[in-house]
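TL;DR need structure tokens for one chain.
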Amino acid sequence: MASAAETDAMRRALRLARNGPRGLNPQVGAVILSPDGEILAEGHHRGAGTPHAEVDALSKLAPGEARGATAVVTLEPCNHTGRTGPCAVALLEAGVARVVYALDDPTDAAAGGADRLRAGGVDVEAGLEREAATELVRDWAHLQRTGRPRVTVKWAQSLDGRAAADDGSSQWITGPDARRDVHERRARADAILAGTGTVLADDPALTARDADGALLDRQPIPVIVGETPVSADAAVRRHPREALFFATRDLAAVLDELGGRGIQTVFVEGGPTLESALLRDGLADEVLVYVAPVLLGGSRLALGDLGVPGIASARRLEVASIDLLGDDIRVVARPAHDTQGES
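>> reply
TL;DR here they are.
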């Protein structure tokens, strides 16, 4: 049974973990406690090739200072040698007497640290603050499982399903509350994806901004897909993050490449052609729709062909949430096989 000091330390470790970068490695935090529950050291993982959180914390202690201590870690200490050695071994060699961790490592290569620690005589407890730790590494775990980032397809539409009026104008279908929510979600994403058709037609900046138009601190990497060249003076080329251009229509290959770069989440604002293709090919993990109480009529539908010949082939979704933002409705839905909670 975890003590109050261990619970506080785990919550501290979860906060520390978020200081680490998102990428191919998980965000992990660690706190070392003395036998009487005082914090001796703390650490977090700073990226591929750097010491893992446990080793980062241990490095701040003098030799022998961790003997008899408790290590509180957000993820099961690893049991493999990669660019760094096994954390389970580092904890054993440091003389740690107890390890409390939140979440079992979901990867075959790194799992097994808990068993190794127990075999070495260490008291091990798993599952403290498991839910919070699961949320912390949810996108990383998805990347490990699929090799691709989690993809959110977003669009705004009128009540009758139009993304624009017949003359092509679409600013603004939704109100300021919905637009603010979009920019906050852009800032949380690792990348923002658009097609060359949208870039050429609308010249979007693809930045995350506040209500006054100022750039938010965190910006997604712009990713442009399509075979049509994008001009040198396009707004996206002035994005604070260097844009990635893929001269292809192979969306699965693009997502594989992004996953290989450690991009965990992609926010798609690419127009009906790109978004319909992602949905048609089963590459979307989440649908985010803002519905405004306006009627436009005409032919500018929010989505195009999804490869649905009849109602029996309809793409069924499960609604994760429905919220009112000003006068607009925000709907989050996922394919019926994905029942994970909203981030």
